[in-house]
Amino acid sequence: MGRHLGQCAVVIGAGIGGLSAAGALASYFKEIVVLERDTLPASAISRAGTPQDRHPHLLLAGGLQALGDILPGFEKDLARAGAVSINVFRDIRYERADVGALPQRDCGEAILSASRPLIEHVLRRRVAAIANVALRSQCRVTEIVPDATRQSVRFVSGAGEIAAVEADLVVDASGRGAPTLGLLSALGWERPPETTVGVDISYTTALLQPEGKSSDWQILVTLPDPRSSVLAGLILPIEGGRWLVALSQHGAPERPETWEDFLALSRQLNTPMIYNAICKLAPPDGLRHFVFDESRWRHFEQLQRLPRGILPVADSLCRFNPIYGQGMSVAAQQAKLLCEVLDRVAAEANPIEALQAEFLSEVGSLLQAPWNMGVNADFAYPGTRGERPERYEESRQFEAALFRAVAADPVVQRAFSDVLQLIKPFELLQDPDIRRRIEANAMA
Ligand SMILES: Cc1cc2nc3c(=O)[nH]c(=O)nc-3n(C[C@H](O)[C@H](O)[C@H](O)COP(=O)(O)OP(=O)(O)OC[C@H]3O[C@@H](n4cnc5c(N)ncnc54)[C@H](O)[C@@H]3O)c2cc1C
Q1: Where are the beta strands (DSSP E) in 224-317?
Q2: How many whole angstroms from 402 Cα to the centroid of ligand 1?
Q3: pLDDT at position 444, please?
Q4: Per-residue pLDDT tens for 285-308?
Q5: φ, ψ for residue 339, nearest 5 deg
């Protein structure tokens, strides 16, 4: 625990990014005020400010670990609240078009599967219990008013009253980053350059009650051959013995509106596994839809200047294509990075400036691997918009060889699992022994 860096830190947004950042800041500021525009529910239910929460949200092992580091005991709380324990890859049937279903080997990691509202509820309960954190619901931030020393965060309360909190540090975890961009516009300062990749992913999700447990998988993923299909499917078990079943399509073609449409579409998946698992179940109470237009990385670190004490995090900084299940985990890892940087800068003469500079210069290396993995896979779909990453063809060839090796070699599968779950850096796959094993399979 370091010395206090300031009187007050304000966090805008009580989503996964905001809550984990508040947990990280708690030891470093006298007071942390989280301003959230929604009414925060007392239980694990959906809310208007996070419309994505009706769709499957996979929390990767790296995200679970980061949340446990920030809030010790989080994992136990989530399990106790009903999350389903999943062994990676023993309990996961992961079907690809090129190599078929990956072997269901025990790769030594366990994850917890739950609905997004439950994950957020457990996290919110933990953060709300920290004595110097105040979660204030029905507070919609309208602007950050700049000041040379302390920023003032203005908001409208549920009763329509306008109020403000003065802060040494403002963490923008509003998802869209509107408060930070608004502040830059008000000052007439440049906005950050962005890298965007247009995917137009449409999600349709059904909440179902399965009959008993499938004997040989708990999570089922069916991926298409991107050259001929845009349709992927997922079954994710959640608390209460239920399944979230989602069909996602690149390029947002016509979406299924009825259960019959949903079943018909699921028959077009690359294998009949999902259709067979759901076709005899009672229809859901309706389908939920979401369209995600583009992944977006805002390069704040490239700006000549950024107002003092402003820190955009999570989706406000970088939002990932949701089908790879990375957003919450990378948000939690950013909060952990925040802790590490806070600890390091606490003794400096100007810790807030040092925090902003060091966090923004280091966060890129945390975002790069998940960003590359997603974007390289996205560009296999002909409709994807944007600039292909450098050495794209080489990455595709590497990926093809990697999956052949994952299927054939348990050592490679374990390394792949650690990288995919954001437990180990991508460079693990460049390790000489792993490389040799991948190359052996490329030539086989
Ligand atoms: C369809 C879909 C599926 C996804 N699936 C996964 C998955 O499987 N795994 C995964 O890890 N991630 C997934 N994600 C991504 C994940 O939802 C986010 O990356 C993650 O929650 C981090 O978001 P955040 O905290 O930055 O923003 P959000 O979760 O969007 O939270 C932002 C919060 O800020 C509040 N807010 C906004 N503006 C204001 C304001 N002006 N004043 C006050 N409060 C404000 C909002 O009400 C909200 O509570 C998915 C996303 C989508 C769209």
Answers
A1: 231-238, 242-249, 288-298, 310-312
A2: 31
A3: 60
A4: 999 999 999 999 999 999 999 999
A5: -60, -50
Q: Is the CB of 6 under 6 A from ligand 1?
A: no
Domain enclosing residue 279, as ranges: 197-292
Ligand 1, atom 46, lies closest to the CA of: 49
What is the distance in A from the centroid of ligand 1 to the CA of 50?
A: 6
One domain for residues 176 and 204? no
CATH of the domain at 137: 3.50.50.60
Nearest Cα residue to atom 53 of ligand 1: 52
CATH number of residue 275's parent domain: 3.30.9.30
Pairing of strands 29-35, 133-136: parallel
Given a contact cutoff of 8 angstroms between Cβ atoms, the answer to whether 405 and 440 are in contact is yes
Residue 443: per-residue pLDDT: 65
Mutate which of 36, 201, 367, 420 for ligand 1 pocket (most atoms within 8 A of beta carbon)? 36
User: Do residue 42 and residue 182 come from a single domain?
Assistant: yes
pLDDT of residue 30: 96
Q: CB-based contacts of 374: which residues, under 8 Å, 6+ apart?
A: 295, 320, 321, 324, 326
233 vs 197, 236, 247, CA distance in Å? 21, 10, 5
**What residues in the chain have per-residue pLDDT under 70?**
1-3, 443-444
Q: Which atom of ligand 1 is nearest to the CA of 139?
A: 43
